[in-house]
Amino acid sequence: MALRPEKRSQGKKSAIDWPALHLRIGQARAAAERGWAPDAEQAERILQARARAMAAEPHNTGAVAEQVEVVEFLLAHEKYAVESRHVREVLPLENLTLLPCTPAFVSGIVNVRGEIFSVIDIRKFFDLPDHGLPDRHKIIVLRSENLFFGILADAITGVRQIPLSEIQPSLPTLTGIREDYLKGVTPERTVILDAGKLLADERIIVREEVR
User: Fold this and answer.
1) Per the domain annotation, does 189 fall within a domain?
2) What is the pLDDT of residues 42-67, one digit of tens each?
3) pLDDT at res. 78
4) pTM for the full model?
């Protein structure tokens, strides 16, 4: 039996209008992109949230502010440290010139780039027993606004940050002049010297004259 013409037409596939389809896809994509763009009110809220976050950032730096940076060094098998803000530079000990009629803690003077300054043995300055490595071959140059001088070291072990909460004020074994110039002691028994007091001590300034 033959099919009716109208039913035969229903079985045919209709042609796809590709230009119209691409247009609708482009319109949908543009609408989606516009949906992610904040309006003026949303943009204001985002900016305020960012401002609050930036204003809160300094509160997170408290841990950094509660630390001190030090230069650590060895001297006669003991660990010492001074705050890096008092350190001008670290140099090898070269061309040390001895000076007569000076205190025992003054090891001599050196000439560095045309600048002449004294070199101090802090163990002798503190009246501590002088034992351990005899070949001290590093100079840590301490400086203030009006004075600079070098202190002897056997070796520089590094620069690091130490939390103030870990620094003990003193130890029972540290007495006398050593305690006067003591800033603190770490749990590893590194002695942190008060370089500011050393730089302010008039005994460092040698006034003796050779006759």
Assistant:
1) yes
2) 556 666 666 666 655 554 444 455 89
3) 85
4) 0.64
pLDDT confidence of residue 210: 44
Q: Which residues span the domain enclosing 135?
A: 66-204
Dist. CA 61–CA 47, nearest whole Å: 23
Residue 51, token pair as written in the block: 């401002």
Domain end, chosen from 61, 84, 113, is at 61
Looking at the structure of the chain, the number of domains it has is: 2
CATH assignment at residue 81: 2.40.50.180
The model's pLDDT over 112-152, given as tens digits with 9 standing for 90+, comes to 999 999 999 988 888 776 665 556 689 999 998 888 899 99
Q: Is residue 3 part of a domain?
A: no
189 shares its domain with 142: yes
Q: In this structure, which amino acid lies at residue 144?
A: S
Predicted local distance difference test score (pLDDT) of residue 180: 76
Structure tokens at 160: 């690091």
Rounded Cα–Cα distance for residues 12 and 32 (Å): 35
Q: Determine how many CB atoms are found less than 10 A away from the CB of residue 205.
A: 10
Q: Are residues 42 and 86 in the same domain?
A: no
